[in-house]
Design brief:
The complex is a heterodimer of chains A (about 350) and B (about 475). Chain A is built from 11 helices and 14 strands. In chain A, helix 3 crosses helix 4 and helix 5 packs parallel to helix 6. Chain A is α/β, with parallel strands linked by helices. The N terminus of chain A is likely disordered. By secondary structure, chain B is mainly α. Chain B has 21 helices and no strands. The longest helix of chain B is centred in the first third of the chain and has 33 residues. The N terminus of chain B is likely disordered. Classes of the chains: A alpha/beta (about 350), B mainly alpha (about 475). At the A-B interface, helix 3 and helix 4 of A face helix 1, helix 2, helix 6 and helix 21 of B.
Chain lengths: ~350, ~475
């Protein structure tokens, strides 16, 4: 606690919105053209005595995007997310949510965000309904508006049937839904979810994924961290990799799966006569036969351009090959992550952001 | 057992959440809902009712018997002054252990509303106990040999005591470490009992303490400040850096000092001095041990003009301004002593004002000395969650050392001065002044030592943390 956060407290000149004092909805963000990104982080660092948790991190997330935040334990994910949620302070650098500086305008930032920590906090001797009611009151909702918000959230998270259940009797999945419901009570524009799927069974995980997808469709910005990369790949528009406090990759999951490869490996299945694939590949341009499988084989196409790939498929069909399946063989995201880490350790350059 | 879900859509289910009006503090509503469901509350309530019935039956058999009266009051005292306050022992720390403090801080509840809400809820439950006892009090009156007004006053007094004791436990519950919390509750608890019993003696036994309305008024004032102090003490320990609780806390303490001084004109000079000393003492210890990091936004209201920038050096959070606030309190303390002396102590014969000044400065040094020790030997802990615990620990060690010195000087009376010189701490200096301060050769040495300690106590922390001082000055000028 020796550092002085004041040193980094350079805020926006955003003025306080007086209406915000009486209404829980986020006040209007500072005027800017084009609109400020949902999340903007510039040269953010955070150090504790003896530990440099976050080092010079910069990234930005456009409004309405779903972004996955990936890293090993202790990589700096939670520290970064806590700073974005105004629960911690940067030692240097800046972070903005919807145009508001997290240090100089914490109240405005809090109205914009819904925060779901990795260890969701709940109370004993309290029902689901009472829990939501407490947070709705604490967020400043009164009268009918409070009732409406609670009802909306219960419906969305399918908690109506559990309204009278004591919280300590909920399963982990139900608890996470409750926690998500709490984070949504004030209808925030940006959701910051720290490991929401940790410890959930597959059914609860699918349910959570569905809820996040619905939120994304509603235009909310979702910043989500998880260890399960394949799930993030399906959900997210882009992925941020963090390692030892530094951002090592920011890009789409497709670019990650493709990696630096200039050739595409395609797996082809045929309805019958799998040996015809090798024969066809030896005559076709841009194509090299790699290996055969029980129902076809793998071919290498000397381009990753989708138009060339579709042209190859068209030609296969025109040449009478009974194609039943034609798909790109991509790297798993986990492999990509490990590969990037390996490149970094070897002193190579990671995949450009 | 969980009740089956009631039929209806989400809106009709949510509509059930209107049993508490919307204007009630969210924390109060939450704590009441939770608290009244705990086994401890239920068991204590049933137990108290059973004991009341038993005591009433004993009273019926033998009206006015001291056994039934003792039985009655013993359980009321245990429930109100032990059980209820101890329920607040983990009030704030549990929010950390349950990982809910972050979630609450993201709402519109600031640390004061969190702490105050918890305290109000505990008091509301105490009120339930008190109303549960009231019918038995009336019935005892009908059985005879009972002064209903005195009993009612005693019940109200116990209620106030319970409020103060609850404020102490809730304030101390801001510390997450169980042992530290326990020790603080124990130390403040003992202090509370001593003060409570002394006040009780003053209010309810006129023969012993000299009952007077001004004294009673001062007692109530002291209790009110006590509640405010411990609640804001807890609030400022759990508050994020962006919240400023110190300015209000320090100004309120000065306000209470002013109110207490009003009682001087009501012939309660001694009691008023004690209350002022208590208020200033508590306010100073708190100010001296506050964590330093200053959040730029906290300084915003102080940047407006020169006067406010000056006030920032006394009223903003952290030990840095705490030291200057302490100096302000010392000045008030010495001025008060000068004013309250028969004709002002500076007009007394030459040797006495100096001795009195030495004593007053040494009393002030008692508060400052542990801080000097922390800044010299534990600079890393000068501004953090451990500062207060460390301060209390050093203060306790110094108390033990003083007792040892007293015993030693008693046993080796001819080496008194040597022993005092070897242990240069304010409490020993006070002891030395007491036993030999009037003697001319030592008078100036003691005075010099007291002033030097005060000077070092103020200067050393500033020198040790020059960067922090520079940072504070810079932030005060520009955001």
């Amino acid at each position: 606690m020796n550092e002085t956060p004041a040193s980094s407290a350079s805020g926006d000149p955003a003025s306080e919105d007086p209406s915000a004092k009486n209404h829980p909805a986020p006040s209007a963000p500072p005027e800017s053209d084009p609109p400020a990104p949902a999340i903007e982080v510039r040269s953010l660092s955070r150090w504790f005595p003896g530990v440099h948790a976050v080092r010079d991190v910069s990234f930005s997330v456009a409004r309405g995007q779903v972004v996955g935040f990936v890293g090993a334990n202790g990589a700096g994910k939670t520290t970064t997310m806590r700073i974005l949620a105004t629960l911690d302070y940067p030692s240097s650098g800046e972070a903005h949510i919807c145009g508001y500086n997290v240090v100089s305008h914490p109240a405005e930032v809090r109205r914009c965000i819904g925060w779901m920590p990795d260890h969701y906090g709940t109370y004993s001797h309290m029902t689901v309904l009472e829990y939501l009611d407490f947070f709705a009151r604490a967020l400043g909702y009164k009268g009918n508006e409070r009732i409406e918000r609670i009802a909306e959230v219960m419906e969305f998270t399918d908690l109506t049937g559990l309204a009278d259940r004591l919280i300590d009797q909920l399963s982990k999945g139900m608890g996470q839904r409750l926690c998500l419901g709490r984070a949504l009570l004030h209808d925030p524009e940006v959701l910051i979810l720290d490991e929401p799927a940790a410890g959930l069974d597959p059914k609860a995980r699918v349910e959570l994924k569905r809820l996040i997808r619905v939120l994304a469709e509603e235009g909310k910005t979702v910043f989500i961290s998880s260890h399960i990369l394949s799930e993030l790949g399906e959900m997210c528009d882009s992925l941020l990799f963090i390692n030892q406090g530094r951002i090592i990759h920011h890009g789409s999951s497709e670019s990650l799966r493709r990696g630096k490869a200039e050739n595409a490996i395609v797996e082809v299945h045929l309805a019958h006569s799998p040996e015809r694939l090798a024969e066809w590949a030896s005559l076709a341009p841009h194509v090299t036969f790699r290996e055969s499988t029980r129902t076809g084989g793998r071919i290498e196409i000397d381009s990753v351009d989708p138009t060339i790939l579709s042209a190859v498929l068209r030609r296969m069909i025109q040449d009478g090959l009974p194609v039943t399946d034609f798909h790109l063989q991509e790297r798993k995201l986990e492999d990509a992550f490990i590969e990037i880490l390996g490149e970094l350790e070897a002193g190579g350059t990671p995949i450009p952001t | 057992m969980t009740p089956p879900p009631l039929p209806g859509d989400a809106t009709s289910v949510a509509l059930r959440m209107t049993e508490f009006p919307g204007r009630f503090s969210p924390m109060l509503v939450k704590e009441l809902r939770q608290g009244m469901r705990t086994n401890l509350f239920t068991v204590a309530f049933i137990l108290l009712q059973s004991v009341m019935i038993l005591s009433l039956l004993a009273g019926l058999a033998d009206p006015g018997s001291p056994v039934s009266t003792g039985f009655f009051w013993f359980f009321v005292v245990v429930i109100l002054l032990v059980v209820q306050p101890l329920r607040g022992f983990a009030a704030l720390s549990s929010e950390f252990s349950l990982n809910t403090m972050d979630l609450i801080q993201l709402t519109r509840l600031d640390a004061w509303r969190i702490t105050h809400g918890k305290w109000t809820a505990l008091n509301a439950q105490t009120l339930l106990f008190l109303t549960g006892v009231l019918p038995y009090l009336v019935m005892r009156y009908f059985l005879g040999n009972v002064n209903f007004v005195v009993d009612l006053a005693a019940l109200v007094y116990l209620g106030l005591g319970s409020a103060l004791a609850s404020a102490i436990t809730i304030g101390c519950s801001a510390f997450r470490h169980f042992v530290l919390r326990g020790l603080l509750v124990l130390a403040f608890g003992i202090g509370f009992i001593l003060l409570f019993v002394a006040m009780q003696a003053m209010i309810f036994r006129p023969g012993i303490g000299g009952f007077s309305f001004p004294t009673m008024g001062l007692c109530v004032l002291a209790m009110l400040y006590g509640c405010f102090f411990f609640l804001s003490f807890g609030a400022s320990r759990i508050a994020p850096l962006s919240e400023n609780h110190s300015t209000r806390k320090r100004l309120v303490a000065l306000g209470f000092v002013l109110l207490s001084l009003g009682f001087v004109w009501l012939d309660a000079e001694d009691a008023a001095t004690i209350v002022v000393a208590l208020i200033l003492g508590f306010a100073c210890v708190d100010a001296l041990t506050e964590p330093l990091p200053i959040y730029s936004r906290v300084l915003e209201p102080f940047r407006k003009n020169l006067f406010l920038r000056g006030a920032a050096w006394v009223f903003t959070p952290g030990w840095l301004s705490g030291i200057l606030y302490f100096l302000l309190c010392v000045w008030i303390w010495i001025s008060l002593a000068a004013l309250l002396s028969p004709s002002g102590f500076f007009s007394l014969p030459s040797s006495e004002p100096q001795t009195l000044l030495t004593t007053l400065i040494s009393v002030a040094n008692l508060f400052l000395f542990p801080l000097l020790f922390i800044h010299l030997f534990f600079p890393r802990h000068a501004s953090g969650n451990f500062t207060f615990g460390l301060y209390v620990f050093i203060q306790a060690c110094l108390a033990v050392l003083t007792i040892m010195v007293a015993i030693l000087s008693d046993a080796l009376s001819q080496y008194d001065d040597l022993i005092f010189a070897l242990i240069p701490i304010p409490s020993v200096l006070l002891f030395a002044v007491e036993s030999g301060g009037i003697a001319p050769p030592f008078e100036r040495i003691y005075f010099g030592a007291a002033v030097l300690t005060l000077f070092l106590g103020v200067v050393v922390p500033f020198l040790r943390h020059r960067d922090a001082v520079r940072e504070f000055t810079r932030n005060l000028k520009t955001p």
